[in-house]
Design brief:
Structural class: mainly alpha
CATH class: Mainly Alpha
Distance between the termini: 29 Å
Mean pLDDT: 84
Radius of gyration: 20 Å
CATH superfamily: ABC transporter involved in vitamin B12 uptake, BtuC
CATH topology: ABC transporter involved in vitamin B12 uptake, BtuC
Number of domains: 1
Length: 346
Amino acid sequence: MTNPVIAKQKPLNFHFPKYFWAVLAGSLVLIALSSIASLAYGSRSVGLQEIMDGLFHPEVHSYGADVVRKRVSRTVFSLFCGAALGVSGALMQSVTRNPIADPSILGVNTGASLFVVCGIAFLHISTASQYIWLALAGAAITAAFVFGIGSLGRSGATPIKLVLAGAATSAALSSLVLAILIPRSNVMDQFRFWQVGSVGSGSWSAVSTFAPFLIVGLFLAIISGPALNALALGDDVATSLGVRTGFLRVIAALGAVLLCGASTALAGPIGFIGLLATHVMRLILGPDLRFVIPMSALAGAIILTFSDVAGRLLGSPGELEVGVITAFIGAPLLILLAMKSKVRSL
């Protein structure tokens, strides 16, 4: 079956990167460890036997086993959100050819936040299924706007122009969010916990709402991978290889918006996961997006879940929202990448 984003391109040679199998095995082990830690630690820590009872012995109704059962949905939700944000970052970096692109840096999260706040304030929405469509619309419109502004001028969409356009757009939208919230204390109370970014509200309802968007977004990302490799060589080279560059950007951007918008709607604007996950995998596996995209999903899931556990431990007996932890880790990395790469194009 022909890849829908490629017209005449011949099949690319498929060689696994060096260390791929070791990285895959290590990632799966870290997924398991992060999941166990997420089940074990919180306001009340539980032991291995209580975890086993909670997972495999439904007849046991001890306090620890019941706590584990309640944490399972949060753990699954955290893994899903991390995977979505990791892949969204990889797609945005590839489509914009910007090595520091990320949903939070390009203002996409803020656009989703603005639409959610408008829905809460003016439409009185309150459920995840209502949040998600507004967040997707906000993310899509903001992504198109930032790319359009960043593409103006003779040189087109350069990395530095996209970052500046994203920062300016994010600042403007944040001001609008505050303008809506300040005179409405009831909306502020509903919005303030969501705004920081947290997976604490992860329930089976949120997981089931999120799953279809995750599946569709991952599918679009995976089918776009081979053509995005060609796009990294430049539009002219990609076109000569048979890649339909305009259609490719639309498909890949749609996948990124679905993943980012859905996770933002349900967990709030969690930043830097896409930046962290994608750069780790590029550093280890190289630039081939056929491998970077799926492995960024695993890396994002690991980073977000461990960050959630760290927030619970550092904030005990309460918790620090995961958005605070990822910002604390990701902001220095962003500065380092900007200084080291001088914001070169991919």
